[in-house]
Amino acid sequence: MSLRHIACSLLLSSLALPLLAAECPALLQGELPKLRSKGASFDLCQFAGKPLVVVNTASFCGFTPQFKGLEALYQRYQDQGLEVLGVPSDDFRQESDDSAETATVCYVNYGVTFTMTEPQPVSGDDAIALFKGLAEQSRQPRWNFFKYVVDRQGKVVASFSSLTKPDDPELIAAVEKAIASQP
Predict the structure, then answer these.
(1) 61 among known catalytic residues
(2) Of 17, 122, 146, 151, which residue has the fewest beta carbons closer than 10 angstroms?
(3) For residues 150 and 182, which has the higher predicted lDDT (pLDDT)?
(4) What pLDDT score was predicted for residue 91?
(5) What is the DSSP letter of 160?
(6) pLDDT for residue 68
(7) Hey, what domains does the chain have and what are their CATH numbers?
(8) Angle value at C-alpha 116, between 151 and 45, nearest 5 degrees
C-alpha cells in the first residue's frame, strides 16, 4: 500500500467520523453507567435510529411490578427494533442505595433483559442530560415509572404517567407509531 493510498484512506476516515456523530440525535448524546457492570458505561447513541421507551424506575414503589409489563413490551417488539431503557432513580425516595439490590429487583425478581442504568437523577435541576432533553420535548417525570416513547429520529412522540401500564392501548399505539417512523 502506497503512502498516498494510506493518506487518502485516513482522510476519508476522518471525514466519515463527523457524519456518524451527526446521525446521533442530541437527545441521545452521552454515556451512562450500566447497572451491575462494575464501572462500565454505554453510549446512548447505540439507540440512535431505533424506537425507544425510556422509563425512570424505582425498586420499592407501588408501580415496581410494571417491570414485568415493560419486559413483555420489549419482548413483543424487540424484533421490530424497539429498545427499552430503564433508569433507576431515588428522586422520589423509593430506590435502594445499593445498586446490587437494584439489580436483584430488576434482573432476578422481574427477569428484565432490557438495558438498565445505575441510579440517576431524573427530575429538577440535577436531572441527567437525557431526562432534561426528554422534559424539554414533553414534561418532567412527577413520579417513578413515567414513560417516554421516542421515535427513530430522537423525538418524543408521547409520554405517559406512572398510572399508565406498559400494555395500555395508548402506549402500545405510541410504540407502534415510533416503530413505523423512518430513521
Answers:
(1) yes
(2) 17
(3) 150
(4) 97
(5) E
(6) 98
(7) 24-180 (3.40.30.10)
(8) 45
Question: Hey, what amino acid is at 107?
Answer: Y
Report the run of H or E that residue 158 belongs to, with start and end. strand 156-160
Question: DSSP string covering 56-100, please?
Answer: EE-TTSTTTTHHHHHHHHHHHHGGGT-EEEEEE--TTS-S-S-HH
| Rounded Cα gap, residues 46 and 32, in angstroms | 11
pTM above 0.85, yes or no: yes
Q: What is the pLDDT of residues 129-150, one digit of tens each?
A: 999 999 999 999 999 999 999 9
Q: Give the rounded percent of residues in the chain with a pLDDT score beyond 70.
A: 88
Candidates 137, 142, 98, 152; CA nearest to 122 is 142
Give me the catalytic one of 8, 24, 45, 61.
Answer: 61
The whole-angstrom separation of Cα 38 and Cα 99 is 10
CA angle 128, 133, 135 (to 5 degrees): 95
DSSP state of 21: H
Distance CA 82, CA 75 (A): 9
Checking if the pLDDT of 15 tops 90, the result is: no
Amino acid at 136: E
Give Rg (Cα) of the chain: 18
* Placement of cell 398510572 in the chain: 163
